[in-house]
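User: quick one, fold this
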Amino acid sequence: MEKIDEISTVKKKVVVSTLSLFFQSGYAAILGLVANLVITILLSPTVFGIYIATLSIIAILNYFSDVGLAASLIQKEVVTREDEKTAFTVQQTLVGSLVAIGFLASSSIRSFYKLPAQGTFLYWALLGDFMFSSLKTLPSVFLERKIQFEKIVLVQVIENTFFYLTVIILALVGLGLNSFSFAVILRSIVGVTSIYFLSPWKPGLGINKDSFKKLVSFGLPFQATSLLALVKDDLFTLYLGKVIGFQGLGYIGWAKKWAEAPIRMIMDNISRILFPLFARFQKDKERLSRLVDKIIHYQSLLILPMIIGAALTMSLFIEVIPKYSKWSPALPLFYLFCVSAILSSYSTPFINLLNGIGKVKISFYFMVGWTVATWLLAPLLIHFYGYIGFPITLIILSSSFFIVIYETKKIVQFHTIKDISPFFVASVIMAITVSLFLKLNFSHLLTLLIAIGGGIISYLFTVRYIFSIDILSEIRFLMKKNG
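Assistant:
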């Protein structure tokens, strides 16, 4: 009976957390859309490329901030005060050292990338944000362990509000790249204050050898996977900034940001819940199987039409937005990134499953392959095809999703084709419908609105009346069952 009550409680927390994360992502998406439009209208691709490169430098520093201790605390069944103090002390020692190194390396980074003064200031602001963000780790871990993501969401809503509004206002008054810098500083201060208010925790210093060994035994393999992701993504972004220049990096950053928006909005939120959830039920294979089926089902329902619809309408979208034609050269990149985004979305849930049930070595081996392939293929393809070679590389790598599924099925049984096929067919019908509407001889804006509206209607109609999937009924059933 206690186990049933526990499962019921967990279900309720999962639903509340999931809805909270989607609310936050929707709210952030609207603010982010407005901010992104304002920024990319006012700023050049070169300036936007500097911002992308600077973020990658901080991401590299962020990797070394806790050697996987936060993930260990989430995955651990019982967390002691010694575990808390050990994790906090180790993390702050690492972060303090990295920030100091980061500041000392400022002149070298500025010289290597030929950063303007505003670019250097942004780099310093992000170093400060890195320091403040590390202070939020432990309070956030406790909320994740309790699957109380609604509180984390509230902090993110507050942070995003301050960040995006500051960026928009300062960009409009002409501060350029400094708009990001001041927004980052303000977000850092507000974020730390908010998380400690919602998740009070008293910091403590000290390192317990036993606690450290236990935390690192899981944390290091987990962090090794993160290191490879870092080398594959952020370090390669820095390589691109040097090889193809900031303008080319700006085009890549713009195209990748728009193409992966549904992934960031949906999969990132789902992934944050999946890891502690899979860890909670890691010994219950039947429940894990049902969880994976549901994830693939709802992921396909949302992601496929969103990315395919965006790919069909983006060229017209650029025509509608004033001063946005400067991003037209990035459209071929955008289309290729859309393909890689769809394919890679079917690797993410299974990598999370492997990590959650403690099979970090398997996910580590996958990341080794992807990282090596990135650094072997991308420079070669970029040499022959220019910066369009980068998204081609990602398509090749993301095509390996079926291998991830095959390996995961050896551990947990689940359905794949059954959960994907209805939404794939519905998306194809939607694509045909949208393509027909885009040929209408109306104004750009009216044609775009009609195409989007017609696409949504055709998709929902196909899902409901051809495949007999009532989306609204499923949502009501899920809420009633877990409410």
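User: anything notable?
Assistant: The CA atoms of residues 258 and 334 lie 7 Å apart.
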